[in-house]
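Today's session is about reading a structure prediction critically. Students often jump straight to the picture, but the first step is always the sequence itself: look for stretches that repeat, for charged clusters, for runs of hydrophobic residues. Only then move on to the predicted structure, which in these notes is written as discrete structure tokens rather than atom positions. Here is the chain we will use throughout the hour.
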Amino acid sequence: MSSARFKIPESVLVVIHTPALEVLLIRRADAEDFWQSVTGSKNDVDEPLALTAAREVAEETGIDCGKGSALASRLRDWQLQNVYEIYPRWRSRYAPGVTHNTEHLFGLCVPERLTPRLDPREHTDWRWLPYHEAADACFSPSNAEAVLLLPKFVK
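Below is the predicted structure for this chain, in token form.
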């Protein structure tokens, strides 16, 4: 990996949910027991976080919530962030010496359970769960905490 291709240690986590607080979880291809919400790093340090969030949702689920789409107004920046230590198994993706990532939380309310289109190189399965069950199923503590915050952000 060249220095220009290291991941930027600033990312988004997007909790995709229905009005009934059902949450979409996707299973990582590189860790079969890791269920999570949509996550991903900025492509460029200047990339706006909302653009990162919409891009990652489209890449990981096929759901379009980008500017001009029917779901664009349903993507909400929760104005919260987590700073966490990058798991050792993935640290080589970042520049030498980078040990922590800043994760910005977003929610995307879809009108009903949608069937995602997964990239099998990234994710192998998906499921919709009531938010408490989804939180219990998340491998990442910060992801679980974000899911548990969901009722605060649903109108």
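Discussion point for the tutorial: The longest strand covers residues 75-85.
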